[in-house]
Design a protein that fits this description.
There is one protein chain. The protein is of the alpha+beta class. Helix content is 38%, strand content 21%. Strands 15, 16, 17, 18, 19, 20 and 21 form a seven-stranded antiparallel beta sheet that branches. It has a six-stranded mixed beta sheet with strand order 1-2-3-4-5-6, with helices on one face. It has a five-stranded antiparallel beta sheet with strand order 7-8-9-10-11. Strand 4 and strand 5 form a beta hairpin. The longest helix is centred in the middle third of the chain and has 29 residues. It is globular. It starts with 11 loop residues before the first strand and ends in a 5-residue tail after the last helix.
C-alpha cells in the first residue's frame, strides 16, 4: 500500500518497540513503522515525521491499545497521519497541532477497491502531498464551519455569556524588560531586548479553535515578520505576516505556525503587535542612538557582538598591542595605564569604571592584502551592561560619557586621534615607525552622508534618497500613506522649478508611465511626447492620490523616488532655502524608518 502511495523504503524506520500484552496474545501489537520526509537518519525527527503505522496481530479486533500507543508516539513525533491495521480492518487518523485527531477512514481494507474511496485516501496520504504539508499550519480545519458555530453560540444569550467569559481581560503590564499586552482575543507576552541583545515573545488566542495554542517567536522572527506595518489595518496589506483570504478571514504566519483568524482576532492581534513592537523597536533605536553605533557595521563572531570601527596594518597593531600590555591599569597610575588584556577583548578601564571594550580580528576579507590587516571592533560587553544595571544608576544609559561608558563614535575618535599617535611616538625610535602614514595604515570608512541638519546643497539629499529607493525596492508590502504624504508633497514642490532642458526625460517618463497606467483619471497618453510640465502634472496627481488613500504600493513609491533622484541629480533646480529645509524635515523620519529596517529587519526576512 505504501509503495503505491509513493513512500520509499529508505524513508521508513522500524526501531520503536511496542508494549505487548503477554497475557492476551490476541491483543499483541506486532510492529510500528514511521515514515519520514527524508531518508537522512540524522534528520528523521519531529520536524520530518509524516505517518505512524501500527500493525496488529491478524486475529485481533481490539484496536484501543493500538490507538493509545499511536497517540503516545504522536505526542513526541507529531506526525500528520496515524494508521492502525490488523491486515483486515483499517483505521486512519489525521493529526492537527494542539487538537484532537480526526478519524478519516474506518472500514475494512477491501473497501479500498472502490475507486472513489481509494482516490480520496490517495489524495490525503500520498507521499508527495504529505511531504509538502506545513506541519504547523491549521488550515486543515474548516475555519468557516468553526466560525459559524462560534457566531451561532454567541447569538444565544446562555452560550454568549460563556464565550464572553472565555475572552481575555484587556490589560497592559510592564515590569523591567518584560511586557504583556492583552486584548479580548489575543495575548502576547514579550521579553524585550536589552542592550542589543535578543528578545522573544509568546502569542496566545482565546477562541475555541485556538485556545490551547502557544506560538513562540524568536528575536529574528519578531524583527523579520512583525515589526513592519505597525498601526495599519489588517486589510491594507501592509503587514508581512498577515494575508486576507476572504471578506472577514485572515491568514497569519507567525514564526513557523500559520493560523486562520477572524476579522476581530486579526484586529486584536495587530493591536497587541503594535504595542509590543513599538517598545521593541524603541529599545533597539535607543541603544544605537545612545552608543552612537549607527554609522558602523554590526558583526557577530566567536561569541562577540560588536561594531566594526576601522582596520589597521598588522605591523601597527603589533606595537599597539605591546603598548597595551606594558600599560596595564594594575601596574601604574599614569594617564595611559588604561588597559587589561582578556581572552579576546581589550578592556579600557582604570580598574573602577570601564570605558570601552575593543576586539581585534585578522581581516577575513577576500582582499589580496587581508592578511596584513586587523579589524578593530567596538564590543558590546554583556557583563559590563549587566554590572551597570545592578549599580545605583536608574539605567545603563546614565553612565554614557567620557568619564563613564564610551560610545562607539568616541572610541573610534580616541583610538585614531589620541591612542595611535601616542603609540607611534612612544615607539618611534625603537621600531622606526616615524615614517608611518596614518592615512595609509588605517582603513577608515567614512560615511558618504552629510548630516541632514548640516546640509546646504540640494545634492546632499541624494545619498539618503538612494537609501530609501533601495529600501522601497525590497519592501514588497504596501506602505501606510501617512508615511509618504509629506515626502511626496515636499519633494514635488522642491523639483517643481527645474529647468525644462533636463536630460533623461525618457527615463523619467518610463518610470511615471508605470504609475499612470493605473490611474484612469490621468489625461496624458503614453503615446504622446512628454515635456517637463507633464512630469510635474503626474507628480501632482500622485500627491493628490496619496492624500485620499490609506496605503501606497511600495513599488509605486520606489518609482516616484527614482524620479526624484534623477531630477535632483541631473536637473538645475531653482529652490528656496525654505524648500530645502522642508525637504530635510520630510526626509528624516522616512530615512530613519529605512535605516532601521535595512539594518534590523531585512537581514531576518525569509
Amino acid at each position: 500500500m505504501f509503495q503505491h502511495l509513493g513512500y520509499p523504503d529508505s524513508y521508513r524506520q522500524c526501531k520503536y518497540a511496542l508494549t505487548n500484552n503477554l497475557d492476551n496474545p490476541a491483543k499483541q501489537l506486532k510492529n510500528a513503522q514511521i515514515y519520514f520526509a527524508t531518508d537522512d537518519v540524522i534528520q528523521q525527527n519531529v520536524s520530518t515525521s509524516l505517518v505512524i503505522v501500527i500493525y496488529l496481530s491478524p486475529n485481533t479486533q481490539s484496536f484501543s491499545e493500538a490507538i493509545n500507543q499511536a497517540k503516545f508516539y504522536s505526542n513526541y513525533l507529531k506526525p500528520l497521519i496515524l494508521l492502525i491495521t490488523n491486515g483486515y480492518s483499517l483505521k486512519i487518523f489525521k493529526c492537527f497541532p494542539y487538537h484532537r485527531e480526526e478519524l478519516i477512514f474506518d472500514s475494512i481494507i477491501d473497501t479500498l477497491r472502490n475507486k472513489q474511496v481509494a482516490e480520496n485516501i490517495y489524495y490525503q496520504l500520498n507521499f508527495d502531498s504529505l511531504r509538502k504539508t506545513n506541519k504547523t499550519t491549521l488550515k486543515n480545519f474548516s475555519y468557516t464551519e468553526f466560525s459559524n458555530i462560534e457566531k451561532y453560540l454567541s447569538r444565544h444569550t446562555e452560550f454568549g455569556k460563556i464565550l464572553e467569559k472565555s475572552e481575555f481581560e484587556p490589560c497592559l503590564l510592564k515590569t523591567g524588560h518584560h511586557l504583556i499586552v492583552v486584548k479580548p482575543k489575543v495575548l502576547i507576552e514579550c521579553n524585550l531586548p536589552q542592550a542589543f541583545g535578543k528578545g522573544d515573545c509568546v502569542i496566545q488566542f482565546s477562541s475555541i479553535i485556538l485556545r490551547r495554542l502557544k506560538i513562540c517567536l524568536t528575536h529574528p522572527q519578531i524583527l523579520g515578520q512583525l515589526i513592519t506595518g505597525l498601526y495599519t489595518k489588517p486589510e491594507w496589506g501592509c503587514r508581512r505576516f498577515l494575508k486576507q483570504i476572504d471578506a472577514d478571514i485572515f491568514e497569519a504566519s507567525l514564526g513557523q505556525t500559520t493560523v486562520i483568524l477572524s476579522e476581530l482576532e486579526a484586529a486584536d492581534l495587530c493591536l497587541c503587535i503594535d504595542a509590543i513592537c513599538q517598545e521593541y523597536k524603541k529599545r533597539i533605536i535607543e541603544f544605537e542612538d545612545n552608543l552612537e553605533t549607527w554609522d558602523f557595521k554590526f558583526v557577530e563572531f566567536s561569541d562577540v557582538r560588536g561594531f566594526h570601527l576601522f582596520s589597521i596594518d598588522v605591523k601597527l597593531w603589533k606595537i599597539m598591542h605591546n603598548f597595551m600590555k606594558k600599560f596595564n591599569y594594575a601596574q601604574g597610575k599614569s594617564e595611559w595605564h588604561l588597559f587589561d588584556q582578556g581572552n579576546i577583548s581589550i578592556r579600557i578601564s582604570r580598574g573602577i569604571r570601564d570605558h570601552t571594550f575593543i576586539v581585534p580580528r585578522l581581516s577575513n576579507s577576500y582582499s589580496a592584502f587581508s592578511n596584513n590587516q586587523v579589524d578593530i571592533f567596538y564590543e558590546i560587553n554583556d557583563i559590563h551592561i549587566a554590572t551597570l544595571e545592578r549599580s545605583n544608576l536608574n539605567s545603563w544609559q546614565e553612565d554614557i560619557g567620557i568619564r563613564g561608558t564610551w560610545t562607539a563614535k568616541y572610541t573610534k575618535t580616541w583610538l585614531i586621534e589620541k591612542f595611535i599617535p601616542k603609540v607611534i611616538n612612544y615607539y618611534s625610535q625603537e621600531f622606526q615607525v616615524l615614517e608611518f602614514d596614518l592615512d595609509k595604515n588605517i582603513l577608515n570608512y567614512q560615511s558618504q552622508h552629510t548630516i541632514i541638519k548640516e546640509m546646504n546643497e540640494i545634492k546632499d539629499l541624494l545619498p539618503y534618497l538612494r537609501d530609501i529607493q533601495v529600501w522601497l525596492q525590497k519592501y514588497i508590502e504596501n506602505i501606510a500613506a501617512s508615511s509618504l504624504k509629506q515626502y511626496y508633497q515636499v519633494f514635488t514642490d522642491l523639483v517643481r522649478n527645474t529647468d525644462s532642458a533636463i536630460a533623461g526625460l525618457d527615463y523619467i517618463t518610463m518610470n511615471l508611465q508605470k504609475i499612470i497606467w493605473k490611474l484612469p483619471s490621468a489625461e496624458i497618453s503614453k503615446e504622446e511626447i512628454w515635456n517637463f510640465n507633464d512630469i510635474i502634472y503626474c507628480l501632482d496627481t500622485q500627491v493628490a492620490k496619496i492624500n485620499n488613500c490609506q496605503y501606497e504600493s511600495s513599488s509605486q513609491a520606489d518609482l516616484i523616488t527614482r524620479v526624484f533622484i534623477w531630477i535632483i541629480d541631473n536637473g538645475k533646480i531653482n529652490h528656496s532655502q525654505g524648500q530645502l529645509n522642508a525637504a530635510k524635515q520630510a526626509l528624516l523620519p522616512l530615512w530613519e524608518q529605512c535605516r532601521f529596517e535595512m539594518r534590523h529587519v531585512y537581514p531576518h526576512r525569509q
